[in-house]
Amino acid sequence: TTYNGSMPRSPSPAQILSRALDQADPELLARLFDLPSHLRPENEKKMAPINMKSGADTPQDSSLLTDSWQQLLQLLASLQKAQNAQGAFDVQKKIHSLYNANFANSSGNWCVPALHAVCRNTFYLANLSDGDTTRESAKEMAVTLLQESFSRTLNDRTVYNPNDGLSTTGSKKEGVLCVVNILFKIYFKLNKLRLCKNLLKPVESYKLNTKSTDMTQKIVFNYYVGRLFLFEDNFEKAEQCLMFAYSNAEPWNKRRILNFLLPIKLLRGRLPQNRLLEKYEMHPYVPLVDGLRNGDLKSFSNALEKYGELFLKRGTFLLLEKCKYIVYRNLFKRCWVIMNKTNQIPLHVMQKALIFCGTSVDIDEVECIAANLIYRNYMRGYLSHTKRVLVLSKRDPFPTASVIK
Q: I need a surface site. Which of 36, 66, 320, 386 has the fewest CB within 10 A?
C-alpha cells in the first residue's frame, strides 16, 4: 500500500449531526455545540477532536436533517465567524431558542447532554457580552432561554428513573438539575435570589436533588441552596446543604464552599482547627477564629474591619458580626476565671476588659451587652442595675450547649 501524503479529512458538522441523530449518540450531539476556540474559556482552549467512532464514512440518512436541524447548522457556522462577545451572544440566542424547540420534539432524553452544552454556552457568552456592553443585560435575555429549557425538561411526562440512563425512551427530567444550577448562577449574579424559590419547589417535589446520580450537579445544587438558606438566616438548613457540598466536593472546590460554611460554623460555636484554615488558605478567618477562641475582641474587630469589604462582597459580613456576642461571652468568662470564678462580677471590671480590647464603652453599654448575652442564654444570671453588678448562676454560668449548636 502506498501513502499518498494526504491527511484524513475531519468530519463536517452535517456528517456529525447526521450520525448523532442516526445513532442517538448523546456525546456526539453535545460535542457539535462546542464553542469555537477563540470564544472558549481558557481552561477549555485545547479540546480533543471529535471522534466519529467506527463507520464514520458510512453514508447517513439525510432525511434526519430536517429544516430546523439544518438551520442549527447554519447558526453554528455563524457562531464560528463571530468576532466578539456581543456578536457571539446574538447568534447563541438563536441557537438556544431553536435547540429548545428541537429538544421538545426529540424522543427520550438522549439530547439532554447537548441541551446542557447549549445552556452553559448561553450563560458563558451572556457573561462575556455583559462585560463589554451597556445595552440591555445579556444575562436577563439568557434567563428567558434558560427558563424555557427548564420547562422543557421538567414538564416531560415520562416517569423519571435515574438508573435508566440516556436513551430514546428515558425521561427528560434527567436534565433538570443542571439547568436549575445554571439558573441559580445567573440569579445570584443578577441578585434576584427570590426567583430561586421558583426552582426549588418543583425540584424537591420530584426529589430530583436526591434521586439524581450526577454527584457534580448535586454538589452545585446544595452549594447554591445552602447560600440561599444562609441569606434567609436559616442557618441549620444552610449548614446541612453546605456540609453535603463540602464533604463531596473535589479539593479545589472546597475553598469556595468554606467561604460560606465557615461563617455558619463560627456563629454556631464550632471553631475550625488552624491547620484546616492554612490548608485552604482561609487567611482572613485566622484572626477571627483566634478572637472567638480567646475572647480577644481587639483581634476579632480588627480582622472584621480589615477584611470587611471582602465579607460584604460575599454577603457574610453581618453574619460574622453576629459572632461578636460569642467573643463578648468568652471575654467575660475570662474575667470570671481571673476573679476566681466568683458569682458576682462588677460591671466596671467588664468595662475595663472591653477598654483593654480597644472598645470604648460606658457602664450602660456594658450592662446592655451583658443583658443581651443573658437573653441569648450565653450567660446564666441576672443584672443588679442599682449595684451595677452581674450576678452569675452558681451552676454552669457559661453554658457551652447554648453556644455550640
A: 386
Minimal CA–CA distance to 286: which of 269, 272, 268, 301?
272
DSSP 60: P
List the one residue out of 112, 236, 259 whose CA is nearest residue 173.
Answer: 112
CA 95 to chain centre: 27
Q: pLDDT tens across 250-270, in order?
A: 999 999 999 999 999 999 889
- If one counts every other C-beta atom within 10 angstroms of the C-beta of residue 284, the result is 18
Strand partners, 345: 390
Closest CA to 110 of 58, 166, 178: 166
CA-nearest of 173, 193, 174 to 183 is 193
The number of angstroms, rounded, from the C-alpha of 306 to the middle of its chain's C-alpha atoms is 25
Calculate ∠ Cα 319-322-328, nearest 5°.
150
Distance from C-alpha of 278 to C-alpha of 300, rounded to nearest angstrom: 18
b/e map 336-345, b = 16+ CB within 10 Å: beeeeeeeeb
Could you tell me if 118 and 99 are in contact, meaning their C-beta atoms sit under 8 angstroms apart?
yes
Angle at CA of residue 401, ends 397 and 403, nearest 5°: 85
Which of these, 243, 321, 303, 293, lies nearest to 403 by C-alpha position? 293
Which grid coordinates belong to 150? 427548564
Residues of the chain with pLDDT under 70: 1-9, 43-63, 132-136, 404-405
Indicate the pTM of the whole model: 0.87
Distance between CA atoms of residues 115 and 151, nearest Å: 12
